[in-house]
């Protein structure tokens, strides 16, 4: 299948699940973002952005979901934010959050492979967070577009799940025997195909729109970033889980669970 077949199906799946996420979200984000300095970001990535500097920076986030992380960055001091996501429903929620909070954020409903040229060379910081890369069938095309959004010397920040976790079965999967037992190939090239829902907030299952996700090796991520014209300046692996689905593996304290990659546009 071509890219559009994958991304359009995923668009429908995310439109389907976001009302479920809203129902199970333990935080009233509309109220929370009216507080000065409120943030949904964890301590690690907050410290990372503060070290890089947020003041006066224009920030973009690709696959921004309902905008909570981008709004957090602006609430922590960024000049403005622009978020892009394929889901109509999450973008509507993000726009409502921006309006009620008064934070200078703009949200664009688009396939990230179709971001228009008005955004070229516009941003000082580009953020990609947990759960974004797995939905992307072509990393080289994605990072090629991402690189064009950055100004010269602009910074890319990725805070993602470690690809090693894609080798492990979830507790409710038939392949599961032990938290650390390898069940799948690290080099899996065909997509994961699912239709039991993507409710990682309430952990419910339902008969859902078929959705497609993809395993990417660290090498494929690094090469796609480098070949886009972004130089990797930092890479760090972490023992903590940011996916909300691998806490049973984190308890083993034996594998890298997440990573931070920072790059600079040459």
Walkthrough of the structure:
Helices cover 31% and strands 21% of the residues. It is α/β, with parallel strands linked by helices and 266 residues long. It has a single domain (3-265), classed as Vaccinia Virus protein VP39 (Rossmann fold, 3-Layer(aba) Sandwich). It has a seven-stranded mixed beta sheet, with helices on both faces. The longest helix has 22 residues, at 3-24.
Q: Key terms for this structure?
A:
266 residues, alpha/beta, Rossmann fold, 9 strands, globular, Methyltransferase domain-containing protein, methyltransferase, transferase, Methyltransf_25
List the helices and strands and how they pair.
Layout: H1 3-24, H2 29-32, H3 43-52, E1 58-62, H4 68-75, E2 80-85, H5 88-101, E3 105-109, E4 123-128, H6 139-149, E5 150-161, E6 192-194, E7 211-213, H7 218-227, E8 230-238, H8 247-250, E9 258-265
Parallel strand pairs: 1-2, 1-4, 2-3, 4-5
Antiparallel strand pairs: 5-9, 6-7, 8-9
Helix pairs in contact: 6-7
What CATH architecture do you see?
Answer: 3-Layer(aba) Sandwich
Structural class category: alpha/beta
Q: What is the strand content?
A: 15-25%
Q: Enumerate the spans where pLDDT stays under 50 for 5 or more consecutive residues.
A: none
CATH topology: Rossmann fold
Name of the CATH first level: Alpha Beta
| Shape label | globular
Q: What is the average per-residue confidence, as pLDDT, rounded to a whole number?
A: 94
The helix tally amounts to 8
CATH H level, superfamily name: Vaccinia Virus protein VP39
| Order of secondary-structure elements | HHHEHEHEEHEEEHEHE
What is the helical fraction, as a range of percent? 25-40%
In spatial order, strands of the major sheet run 3-2-1-4-5-9-8
Main sheet properties = 7 strands, mixed
Work out the number of β strands: 9
User: What gyration radius follows from the Cα positions, in whole Å?
Assistant: 18 Å
Number of domains: 1
